[in-house]
Design a protein that fits this description.
By secondary structure, the chain is an alpha+beta fold. It is built from 3 helices and 8 strands; from the N terminus they run ββββββββααα.
Length: 175
Amino acid sequence: MNAQKPLGGPDILPLDAKVDGTTSTLNRRRVTRRRVIKIARLSFGLSGSTIDCEIIDESPYGMLVETNVIVNVPDQLTIRLDSGALFHVIRRWAIGTKIGLEIVGLQVIDKPTRARMQSILSVLKTYGLPAALEILRAEQFFDNAELRQAAEDAGSAIAKLQTILECIAPIDPPP
C-alpha cells in the first residue's frame, strides 16, 4: 500500500489572481518552487523516445526542466530522475529549451525501484537503522519527500536516544 499524497493538482492561479495583495502575471503558483539541480530523462511517444534534461526548480506539483536542445515534446510524458524516481507529467508550456511540467498522480514505483526499496527494508531488518539510512542517503531517498522525512526523523531519534543514554549512564573510560 502506497501512503504517498497525490502530487498533481492545481499549482497555478488564474492570470488575474491576487498574490500578496497585488495582481501578478509572473508567478501564479500557489506553492513556491525551490531551486534544485537534478539530472533526469524525459520519455515520450510510442517509440519510447528519450532526452536528457536538468531539473532547475521543483514543487510537489511540478518542475521546470531544461534540455540541451529545443525539442518538441508531447502533452503527456514521463520523467525519470537520476535517483530512479519516476513520474507521469503533463507539459504545461515550453519556451526554447525550458519546459514547464505538472506532476500527475503519485510517484511511479517500477520493478527495479521496488526491488531496491525491498533490499533496503531487508537491510533495515537485518542490520538496523544506521545501515539502512546510509543506503537511503546514497539512493537520495528515491526523491520521495515522505521517505526522506521519515528517515531524517528516525536518524534524529537515534541521535537523541544515544545522547540521553550517554547522559544517564555514561560509559566509564578505560583505566
